[in-house]
Amino acid sequence: MDNKLTLVECPRDAMQGWKHFIPTEQKVDYLNSLLKVGFDILDCGSFVSPKAIPQMADTKGVLPQLQLDGVNTKLLTIIANTRGAEDAVQFDQVSYLGFPFSISETFQLRNTNKTIAESLKQVEEIQNLCVQKGKELVVYISMGFGNPYGDEYNADVAIKWVGELVKRGIRIISRADTVGVAKPDNIEY
Question: Which residues have C-beta within 8 Å of that of residue 15, sequence separation ≥ 6?
């Protein structure tokens, strides 16, 4: 087992929840300060529809202003579909594309307007694009410890979907406790 710890900083998640728009230059300054820290990965932007996440509408303008010379930190941006992936792979600065894949049918529909089956098809398309463009796809298993919607959940459900992702060549899978229902008894190392 590889015991390497990877430090991922995710200011994008916090910023996207702010109601008032954070000026682009302020985002650039903040992200550049985080790049100096030495995180392994910086989740810094989004290629999701600006209607869904208006705060991240300026990601295309932020990325070219990031000071990456002499920095080992790799950049990750979130995408929700093939269209977003096509935009993200155009940026040499971006090493990782993050895709939220919910194992709750209800949440997947609410989050991406797609069923789990449709989202799995998108994962295949995005993975192929990432391979062609030299990027790495990171899949976040949303609702990875349960959900509040009454959708079926147990460890076997999570294991099943992780297996499906692995079959499609996904090497980085992050199980997310999206709604804070994980308990110490659910987690083993």
Answer: 22, 27, 55, 56
Domains identified in the chain, total number: 1
Domain that residue 32 falls in: 8-179
Count CB neighbours of 16 within 10 A. 18
Is the pTM for the entire model greater than 0.85?
A: yes
Taken as a whole, the chain contains a residue count of 189
CA 136 – CA 172 distance, rounded (Å): 8
Residues 6 or more apart from 93 whose CB is under 8 A from it?
A: 63, 64, 66, 68, 75
Mean pLDDT by 10 residues, the chain (189 residues): 81 94 98 97 96 96 98 97 97 98 93 92 98 97 90 90 96 90 79
Whether 187 maps to a domain, the answer reads no
DSSP labels, 20-34 = SPPPHHHHHHHHHHH
- Quick one: the chain helix, strand, coil %, rounded to 5? 40, 20, 40
Identify the CATH number of the domain in which residue 144 sits.
Answer: 3.20.20.70
CA distance 41 to 104: 27
Using DSSP's 3-state secondary structure scheme, residue 122 falls into helix
> Is residue 147 situated within a structural domain?
yes
Residue type, 141: I
Give how far the C-alpha of residue 67 lies from the chain's centroid of Cα atoms, to the nearest Å: 22
Query: Is 3 within the bounds of a domain?
Result: no
